[in-house]
Amino acid sequence: MHAALETRGLCKNFGALTVAEQIDFRLEAGARHALIGPNGAGKTTFINMLSGRFAPSSGQILLAGEDVTALGQVARVKRGLARTFQISMLFKNATVVDNVAFAVAERAGVAWRMLRPARAYREVVDESMALLETLGLTQDARLRVAELSYGKQRLVEIAIALGLRPRVLLLDEPAAGVPTSESQRILEVLDALPEEIAILIIEHDMDLVFRFATRITVLAQGKVLIAGTPAEIAADKEVHEIYLGERHA
Amino acid sequence: MKHAGGYIADSRIRAIEWLPWAFALLCYYAAPSYLSLGSYILTMILFALSLDLILGYGGIITLGHSAYFGTGAYVAGIVAVRLTGEPLVGLLAGALAAGVLGLVTGMIILRTRGLALLMLTLAITSVCFEVANKATSLTGGADGLGGFSLLPILGLFRFDMFGKTAYLYCLAILFASWWLVRKLVYSPFGASLTGVRENNLRMHAVGAPVYQRLVASYTISATLAGLAGALLTQTTQFVGLNALGFQLSGELIVMLVLGGVGRIYGAFVGPLVYLVLQDYLAKRFPEYWYFGIGAMLVLVVLFARGGILGIIDAGILRLRRKS
Amino acid sequence: MRLKLSTLIAVLALSAAVGSATAQTVKIGVITTYSGPTAGQGDQLDKGFKLYLKLNGNKLPPGVKVEPIFRDDTGANPDAAKRVAQELIVRDKVQFLTGVVWTPNAAAIAPLTAEAHVPFIIANAAGWNIPRMSDYVARVSHTLPQSAYPLGKWAAKKFKRVYTVVADFAPGHEAEAAFIKGYKDAGGEIVGSARVPLANTDFIPYMQRVKDAKPNAIFAFNPGGKQATAQMKAFGDLELGKAGIKYIGTGDITADEELQNMGDAALGVLTVHHYSAAGDRPANKSFVAAYKKEYGEKLNPGYMAAVAWDAMDLIFHVIREQKGKIDPDKTMQLIRNYKNPDSPRGPIQIDPETRDIVQNEYLREVRKVNGQLANVELEIVETQYKDPWKEFNKAK
Amino acid sequence: MQDFLSSLVNVAFHGIAYGMILYLISVGLSVTMGLMGFANLAHGVFAMAGGYMMLSAMSGLDVPFPLAIVGAFVAVALASMVLERFLYSRLYSAGELEQVLFTIGLIFMSVALARLVYGPLPQPVFIPGYLKGQIHLLGSGFPAYRVFLIVFSVALAGLLWFGVERTRWGAMVRATVDYRLMAQSLGINTARLFTLTFGLGSGLAALGGALGAEIIAVQPTYPFEHLVYFLIVVAVGGLGSLRGPFVAALLIGVFDTACKYWVPEFGSFFIYVATIAVLLWRPEGLFGKAT
Question: Which of A143, B135, C142, D89 gives a 20 to 30 Å CA spacing to B225?
Answer without folding.
Answer: B135
